Structures are given as C-alpha cells and as structure tokens.
Amino acid sequence: MNDTDSQIAIGSPASTSLAVPVISVRNISKQFGKQSILNGISLEISEGEFLVVLGPSGSGKTTLLRIIAGLEQPDNGDIFLNGRRANDYTPQQRELGVVFQEQALFQKMTAEQNIAFGLRVRNARREVIKQTVDEMLELTRLTEHQHKYPAQLSGGQRQRVALARALAHRPRAMLFDEPFSALDPVTRTEIRREVRSLLRRLNVSALFITHDQEEALEMADNVTVLHNGTIEQSGTPFEIYNRPVTEFVATFLGAANVLLGSWRSNEVVIGGLRISAPESVPVLVENQAVKLVFRPEDAVLNFQPQLLDTPHYLGRGIVEAVSYSGPSERLVVRIPLWRNPENTAIRNRNLSLVESVRAGDFPITVSRTKWEASEMELSVGDPVAVGLKGYRLLPHYPIG
Question: N or C, where is the chain less crowded by C-beta within 10 Å?
Fold first, then answer.
C-alpha cells in the first residue's frame, strides 16, 4: 500500500499532537541580491486554523509562501511541518497544497483529469483516483462540469478545479497566493466564502496571502500584517482592525483618521482642542507627541455637543463633502484647530507636530449607516458637533 492509499483524511495525521503546529516558521530571512525581502519572520499555524498574511505589494508575502512551499530557500531560519524540520524537504515531500492566482491548469485536460493528475503522478490505484476525484467534484460543486476543459469554465470554476486538484492528494495544509484577485468582485466574494466553508468543514489548515483588507478580515481566524519584510502586528481580525499598534496597520487595514497632538495632563491636545483620554493609554510622558487614531465609523455627528452620546468630544466642524454608497454614507468634516479661528494671529501659529505647517483646521472622514443618515440629513456647509465613541492613542516620534 502506498502513501496515497493509506491517508484517509484531509489535514494533519491523526497521530499528530494538537499542541504541535501544522506549520511553524522560525526567524526566516531572505535577500535577493542586496535587497532584503524578509527579516526574521516567525509565525505558526495550528490544526484547522486559517491564517491570512496581509500586506502591500513588495512586502514579502509571496516570498514567504514560496519558502514554506519549498520553491525558495531561506537565507536563515527554519520551516517545521507537524514538528519536523522541513528545510531540506522537496516541495513534493512537504505535502502542501498550493493554489496560485494563475491556476496553471492543463488546457488539454478536462476538469476531472486535472484533479486526478497529482494522484496519477503519485501512482495511486485507479479505484482510489476515481473515488477521490468524485469526492472533490462534489465538494467543489463541479460534478456537472467534470468533462469540460478549462477554456469552457468560468474564472470561479477554474479556481474550484485548482482547489480540488490541490486537495485531492490529502495535503498537510493549503497555501493560497492571492488566488482570487483576477476574479470579478461578485465571484470573488462568493468563492472565498465557499473556500473558507469547505476548508473549515475538512479541518484543513491554510495560509492565505492577500493585499485585500476585506478579504483578510472575512476569511481569517488570525491575521499577520507584513510590511517591508517585517511583521507589524498579528492577531484576530477584531484585534487588528480595532486595536492597531502602528499607524501603518491602522491606515492599511481599512480607512482611518490620524491626528497629531500632544499628551498633557491626561488629555490629548490638538491646537486649541482638548480631548479626554481613551480607555487604554500607552506609557507616555508629559508633552509627548502622540497620534490620535480612529475609524470613520467611530465618529458621531449631531447638531449640538450636548446631544452627542459619546465619551470624547472632538469639536465643532463644517460638512465639506457627502457621498452615498448604498449601505453607508461617507462625509468629510473640517474641524478648526483653534477655538477662535477668526483670529488670524492664533490660527497661523506654527504647529511643530505637523512638520511646522501653518494650519487652521483639519479634515476628518466620518461614516454613517443609511439609517443614521436618514435620521439626520446633512448637506455640504452644514455645521455639526463631532464626538468619538473611542480611539487609539499611539506615541509619535517625529523624524529629526
């Protein structure tokens, strides 16, 4: 009996302890020439976990995936699969399923032939191939398309074939390198939900590479944000979105307002505005430069300050722009930095925390649900009071 016949379940072998990560990356570094791509990357993926590595182009995401898959060798560090060091394993020995953006399907093979290809290469028995292919076709809802060639399938169907082919040989885990980025938005949303549901059903661990923030938040059990070859932050989607530890994470993972101020007497001071401290405050010293970070949906608008049901009053402002996207409304509100902006001498004071730029006000972005927008209709030029449900406070270290 060969290895393919003996494996009866997708995912980690039954003998593997639950305490041992399916994939463990320890202090991985990689350079191409003089350019550093990865710098001391460490992460773990548990059995059944869906880890999304999120970052912009050039952050090192694909290089990391290729090193785990055995398609690239790290300069330093180790890869462990089910607790065993795998640096010297060939890609085939690592038993990982890989799905790329370009599905690399064989154009002269039907869907079922593409799915069966890996099993045939591994010399699986004919009845095992037939049983596995039928199972994969059913799981990926491709049974009625099994005799079609790739050119006869839609983009979403081709990705399902690629997924079924990768799952057919019972991999330890799945690796996805931005597989849905070439699909239209509707198909992309549909297929990523199908893939997430299928892998959860099969209890398959997965590493998913993407630059799409919405995709990361929807699919992940945990998210690792990669930037310039280093990990900026790791955590659950809720933690990453609501508790960013750096300005990059805050602004890359969804829209964010970032205001510069200083920490004085347990308040944030921005120009002539004083804002009460948030629930969680990092270690700060008096007069330290800080960044006040909040999401557009964290801001609340009303006509009078006393009507704001929020713990933090940001100030009065003027609506500068209004746009409507169906489920939500987005506004730009400009808030004066000084309480008496009519006084030109005060308004034009230098602000050292804004690179000494002379400024009298600042714009913020506010997001409201369609129900909030219908209850309080606003137009360009309307005066409003702005409050914050909450915000993050980060130390700021100005260059120079």
Answer: C
Measure the CA–CA gap between 38 and 59, rounded to whole angstroms: 8
How are beta strands 392-395 and 288-294 bridged, if at all?
Answer: antiparallel
**β-strand pairing of 173-177 with 96-100:** parallel
Q: What does the alpha-carbon distance between residue 184 and residue 163 come to, in Å, rounded to a whole number?
A: 18
Cα–Cα distance list, 1 to 13, 73, 135, 157, 260 (Å): 17, 32, 21, 33, 67
- Nearest 5°: phi and psi at 295? -80, 155
Using one digit for the tens of pLDDT, what is the confidence trace for 220-268? 999 999 999 999 999 999 999 999 999 999 999 888 999 999 999 999 9
Strands 230-235, 361-369: pairing kind: unpaired
Which residue, among 182, 143, 190, 136, has the nearest Cα to 162 in the 3D structure? Answer: 136
Q: What's the gap between Cα 133 and its chain centre?
A: 32
CB distance 141 to 105 below 8 Å = no
pLDDT tens sequence across 366-376: 999 999 999 99
Task: Write down the pTM of the prediction.
Answer: 0.82
Per-residue pLDDT tens over the stretch 145-193: 999 999 999 888 898 899 899 898 889 899 999 888 878 888 888 888 8
